[in-house]
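Entry for the shared binder. Reason: the reviewer on the internal report wants the predicted structure included alongside the sequence.
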Amino acid sequence: MDAYTGLDSVGLYLSGGASNYDPDASLGGQISSHLVQGMIPVISAQIPALVIEDATPENGEGPASISIIGSSATYTPPDGVAGSGVAIAAGERKVLLGADATKAVRVYRESGLLFEGTARFDLRDAINGVLAMGNLADADRIAGSTVYRAIFLKALGDITDLLCWITTDGQSTYSLAAETPDSTDTIQDISDETVAPSGLSWIDADSESGAIDLTDSPGMVAGDVVGLWIRRVFPASGVLAARETASLHVQFDAG
């Protein structure tokens, strides 16, 4: 599948400036060139020309592989069945699907490097990323904690009906708010994670029916950007927990 025509028609990018790659510094300002990482590939056997750029959360955690025969790449997701081969020319980006089309990775083929063999890697959920944010100190657990992050959603293809919501299995609750960037793809910034951004309308978007709508009619064309603020509230006197999980759901119509 061609890149930016289907499941990857929306890119999630950090804020904090063009070169920022630190989720903890994603506190507004200009869009970063670095993607939000929901799943991280930990590579054990590499193909020099193959760059794994992104993976859908439906993959789940576990070992995966990409096999190259000629110029054709075939993806096998964790605990899944291989999809069809996709031809990738040097300098091209493509989306590789497993037999279950929701399990996919976007890859890039660099020019002038070896493009053959089998790449093996483990897909792992990001820990303490821009969505879940950092660990809580015990004092914050007792007193309660409210912290913020900002990301950008960028249309990489033409899309309509862009909706976002967050689900979690922990004690934290989440709210979302949209902010329209200026002509340099910049939104307001905050001095630290505990300072509330101003002038926003927060939505407790915890289900599809209560999702925040990020597209104005008639939709977004490739290159359009919208800012999304995330607020995490941990209750006072919360229970000490080893781990909480949170998932950002992004739904849209492509094409």
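Summary line for the report: The chain has two domains: 10-36+127-254, 39-125.
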